[in-house]
C-alpha cells in the first residue's frame, strides 16, 4: 500500500495551469497524438462495447498524460524510497 502525505494529495487535486508556451504546446501535442489514434480506432474498429471502451481508455490516457505534464513541471518527481536498495559493489 502506497503512503501519501497530505501534501501529495493536495498536489494531486490542485489546479495546474499551463504556465508557459512550451507547456501549452506539450499539452496540445498529447491531445493531437491521442486524437489521431482515436480517429484511427473509430475508422478501423467495429462498433461495439470493445471499441467504446478502447476510446474511453484512450481518453483516460490523454488525461493522465496531460496530468503528468501539468503536475511535474516537465521534470519527473520520484517519491522517497520506502526501502533501501542493497549496495551493488
The proportion of strand residues reads: under 5%
Query: Please, what is the average pLDDT?
Result: 82
Can you count the beta strands?
0
What's the main sheet like?
Answer: none
Helix content: 55-70%
Oligomeric organization of the protein chains: single chain
Rg is 18 Å
Alpha carbon gap, first and last residue: 30 Å
The 3D shape can be described as: flat
One letter per element, helices H and strands E, the order comes to HHH
Structural class: mainly alpha
- Poorly predicted spans: none
Tally of separate helices: 3
Give a verbal description of the structure.
- There is one protein chain.
- This protein has 89 residues and is mainly α.
- The protein has a domain at 20-71.
- It is 63% helix and 0% strand.
- It has three helices and no strands.
- It has helices spanning 6-13, 21-44, 49-72.
- Helix 2 packs antiparallel against helix 3.
- The longest helix has 24 residues, at 21-44.
- The radius of gyration is 18 Å and the shape is flat.
- It starts with 5 loop residues before the first helix and ends in a 17-residue tail after the last helix.
- The mean pLDDT is 82.
Summarize the topology.
Blueprint: H1 6-13, H2 21-44, H3 49-72
Helix pairs in contact: 2-3
What descriptive keywords fit this protein?
mainly alpha, 89 residues
Amino acid at each position: 500500500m502506497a503512503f501519501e502525505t497530505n501534501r501529495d494529495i493536495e498536489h494531486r487535486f490542485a489546479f495546474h495551469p499551463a504556465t508557459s508556451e512550451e507547456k501549452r504546446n506539450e499539452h496540445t501535442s498529447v491531445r493531437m497524438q491521442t486524437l489521431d489514434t482515436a480517429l484511427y480506432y473509430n475508422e478501423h474498429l467495429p462498433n461495439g462495447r470493445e471499441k467504446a471502451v478502447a476510446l474511453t481508455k484512450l481518453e483516460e490516457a490523454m488525461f493522465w498524460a496531460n496530468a503528468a505534464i501539468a503536475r511535474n513541471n516537465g521534470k519527473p518527481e520520484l517519491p522517497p524510497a520506502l526501502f533501501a536498495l542493497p549496495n551493488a559493489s
